[in-house]
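Figure 3 (text version): structure tokens given as input.
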């Protein structure tokens, strides 16, 4: 599917230089060299490259929208299946069943079910029963450095982020 009229030499160059499965540029130096060698005006190259970028982004967005729609459909079907399973569970009330359509059996399991006060209790009495995820707070680090505090092993890195519209 194409959205824009893109020069075939730009399209072929861009699609040939990128791994179709991962999206990674195979050889950036070679791509740049071939790009510079294209027999067309600089503005034409840039315009076609911008169009290729926009088209690629639009296709990625279309895929994301489709994934979102399919994920919602999947969720609805999984909910239907779960409701159906609970209906069968209620009807069968622990009774085993076997037919050509399928089999119903049961197996025991155990799980811990902490109540609402468990975390407060465990913090004081048994912290080894809790999981804690520790991550660097990049926003707080940046604010601390900007406020003049010494923060070892961290720095503010300035970047140039291109915007294509």
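Below: residues designed for each position.
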């Amino acid at each position: 599917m194409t959205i824009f009229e893109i020069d075939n030499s730009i399209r072929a160059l861009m699609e040939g230089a990128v791994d179709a499965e991962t999206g990674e540029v195979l050889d950036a130096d070679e791509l740049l060299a071939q790009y510079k060698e294209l027999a067309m005006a600089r503005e034409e190259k840039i315009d076609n490259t911008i169009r290729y970028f926009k088209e690629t982004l639009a296709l990625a967005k279309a895929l994301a929208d489709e994934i979102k729609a399919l994920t919602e459909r999947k969720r609805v079907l999984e909910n239907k299946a779960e409701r159906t399973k609970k209906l069968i569970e209620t009807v069968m009330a622990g009774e085993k069943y076997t037919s050509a359509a399928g089999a119903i059996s049961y197996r025991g399991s155990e799980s811990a079910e902490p109540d609402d006060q468990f975390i407060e209790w465990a913090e004081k009495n048994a912290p080894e029963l809790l999981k804690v995820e520790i991550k660097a707070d990049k926003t707080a680090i940046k604010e601390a450095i900007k406020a003049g505090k010494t923060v070892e092993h961290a720095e503010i890195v300035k970047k140039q982020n291109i915007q294509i519209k």
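The chain has a mean pLDDT of 90.
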